[in-house]
Amino acid sequence: MQIIITVLIIIIALEHLYFMYFEMFAWETIGKKTFKSLPAHLFTPTKALAANQGLYNGFLAAGLVWSLLIADTQWQWNVAIFFLSCVMVAGIYGAITASKKIFFVQALPAMLALLLLLLSK
What we know:
By secondary structure, the protein is mostly helical. It has one domain. It is built from five helices and no strands.
């Protein structure tokens, strides 16, 4: 089960690195394709806001990667629980406030990883 948990954490971290990239560096290109409900003219004035959001996604990815590098299993578990919980909460909030799709892309994988992590203890 540990291999499945590790793979899920890596996938979630990679997702958040991608979110960081497009929100910080490709907001006016990939952002437009991703958030089709926003009018095109809003992407330039919201570029700094998106970059700020991207930075937070980078922190989530860094925390998840860090959880995989910790030698002490108890601390590794604690850090993974914390960052997966943060991803889950962010995904639920995003689903409520922005797009239902965010639940399936962000919150659900984190919930699955959290569940497996909790069951592995």
